[in-house]
């Protein structure tokens, strides 16, 4: 899965975004990378959304409130982040702002999505762009097993069909993603909580992708 070759630390990205479906290991990787490379973190705070538990119990009824809260919350966080010095210290985030639109497209009705898009189109132009996006993916069974083991109360009613649609949506989105350099990693057999070498390999691969992106190339698969 990992196949890294030597690259200069001058290629080290300053702003890294880790993305992927629920349960794939985003926050764990962000936290470990921050510890290993003395980076600051930009972490999404799910618990602050007062509609989330109701959304998992009744998606149709609470989707719009949930997605609008996330949109504005993420924007405020990105706005504060952009005011800091992006070049003073490496930063690692567990979400890409575009995920707002991805989730909305999955959960909102056509009418709700039209209203949502009016706000999203304004806010999305004002957030900082990462140097690289690392897309983590894994099979549905792996995601559901990880979600079960971490035992978050608001995830107990997670619908496997919804999870599979979300997982597929991420895969399809990143097949056509060209906004930044992109690295795809299958986390099925990787435990970022214990494997120090895996953290080093991810960073080395990220450096290689950033270096190679100086000349247009397709996303690299590992």
Structure, described:
The protein is globular and about 50 Å long. It has 222 residues and is α/β, with parallel strands linked by helices. Residues 1-8 have low confidence and may be disordered. Helix 4 runs antiparallel to helix 5. The chain has helices spanning 26-37, 52-57, 59-82, 99-107, 110-123, 140-150, 160-175, 196-212; strands at residues 15-19, 40-42, 91-93, 132-137, 182-186, 220-221. Strand 5, helix 8 and strand 6 form a beta-alpha-beta unit. The N and C termini lie close together (5 Å).
- Provide a count of the helices: 8
Uncertain spans: 1-8
Q: Overall mean pLDDT score?
A: 87
Spatial extent as radius of gyration: 17 Å
Main beta sheet strand tally, sense and closure: 6 strands, parallel
Q: Give the termini distance in whole angstroms.
A: 5 Å
The main sheet orders its strands as 2-3-1-4-5-6
Order of helices and strands: EHEHHEHHEHHEHE
Number of E-type strands:
6
Beta fraction: 5-15%
- Helicity level: 40-55%
- Shape estimate: globular
Structural class: alpha/beta
Q: Which secondary structure elements does this structure contain, and how are they paired or packed?
A:
Layout: E1 15-19, H1 26-37, E2 40-42, H2 52-57, H3 59-82, E3 91-93, H4 99-107, H5 110-123, E4 132-137, H6 140-150, H7 160-175, E5 182-186, H8 196-212, E6 220-221
Parallel strand pairs: 1-3, 1-4, 2-3, 4-5, 5-6
Helix pairs in contact: 3-4, 3-5, 4-5
Could you provide a short overview of the structure?
The protein is of the alpha/beta class. The chain contains 8 helices and 6 strands; from the N terminus they run βαβααβααβααβαβ.
